[in-house]
Amino acid sequence: MTSWGIIRAEMPDGSVEFQVSDGPRGRRSTSYDFDDLKEAEEMLSALRTMERLNTGRTMWEATQ
Predict the structure, then answer these.
(1) Domain limits, the chain
(2) Is the Cβ–Cβ distance between 18 and 8 less than 8 Å?
(3) Is 50 helix (H, G, I), strand (E, B) or coil?
């Protein structure tokens, strides 16, 4: 199962981005970027729910 999480990233222009990611920087295959933490948390919840509904398979495995 994928280890989804939220990474807080400070951008070069000083803004903050919240990245819903399936792994740490350099080891992830997918991330979704948000300006708003609440939106990132909603996406994280949806991704985890989708994985549970796919009987524990990762999203990638479920689409193969």
Answers:
(1) 5-62
(2) yes
(3) helix
